Amino acid sequence: MKRKNLISITEFARLRGVTTETLRHYDRIGLLKPAYIDPKTGMRYYSLAFEDEKLGTIIELKQLDMSLGEINNFLHERSLNKSYVTLKKKQAELKAKIENMKLLYNVLDQRILKIEQAILHDYDFDRIYLKHINKRRIIISELGYTDEYDLNRAAIIIERKLDETAPILGGERFILVFPYENIIRDNIKNECRIGIVMGKDNNSIYENFRIESGLYVCTYRFGSPFDIKVSLQSIKEFCFKKKLRICGNLIAVLTVDMSVTDIPEENVYELQVPVIKQI
C-alpha cells in the first residue's frame, strides 16, 4: 500500500495532542487501527480522511466519561439509531452525576462555612437557646461506648451501611446519644451511642432509631463532647428558669470534628436536649 496522503504515527500524535503510546494501545485493542503499517520498519501511518475522524470521536466520547470498551462498541457498525440510544443513556448517567456533584458542592460549602466559624471563634459558646428541630431518622450503634477507639470503629461500620452520598468530612451528620436516665440522675458517664442522620429520601433497611421533632435547648461547645457535665448543668439551670422539663436523650451533633482537625480543643459540637413546657 502506498503511503500517499498518510502521515506517520509521530505526526498524527502531535497533530491530535495525544501520545504515540496511546495510538499504539488503541491499535492493540482494536479501537483505532492505522491505515498502513510498513512491513519493514513497523511504522504506523494514518489517514486524515478516516482515522482522524475516528480519533476525534474517541477523544470526544472520552470527555463523556465513556470507557474504551463503550467507545469501541459505539464505533462498531455505527447507525443513527444505535448512536441515539447510546448517547441518550450516557446523557442520563451524566445528569445523575451532575445532580450528585451539586449535592456534594452544597455539602462542602456548608462544611467550609462551619470551619470558618470555628477558626474565627464565631460561635456564641456562652449562649443557651431554644429551637425547634424536625424529626430525624438514624442509623445508630446497638451498643454504648466509653472508649473513643471503639466509638470510631462503630462509626465506620455504620457509615458502610449508609446507602447514599456519605457525609463529607463529618458534615453534621454524626451524632452521639447520651441516655436520658443518666442526664436526669446527674450520673453523667462517657457512655454513648454513635449514629448517622439519614437523608430525607433514604429508605435504608438499616434505620433503627428515630429522634422525634420538638423543642430543644441547645448550646455550642468546644473540645470533647464527652466533657458535658458543666454544660449540662447550665442547660438544667436554663430549663429551671424557663419552666422547661427535659424529656429525652441528650444529643451531641458533631459540627467540627476529628475529620478536619487533630487538635481535640478545636472540635465543635452542638448539645441538644429535648424539652417540654411545664404546666
From TrEMBL:
The keyword Repressor applies. Residues 84-111 form a coiled coil. Pfam families: MerR_1. The keyword DNA repair does not apply. GO terms for molecular function: DNA binding; DNA-binding transcription factor activity. Signal peptide: none annotated. Keywords: Coiled coil, DNA-binding, Repressor, Transcription, Transcription regulation. Residues 6-77 form the HTH merR-type domain. This is DNA-binding transcriptional regulator, MerR family.
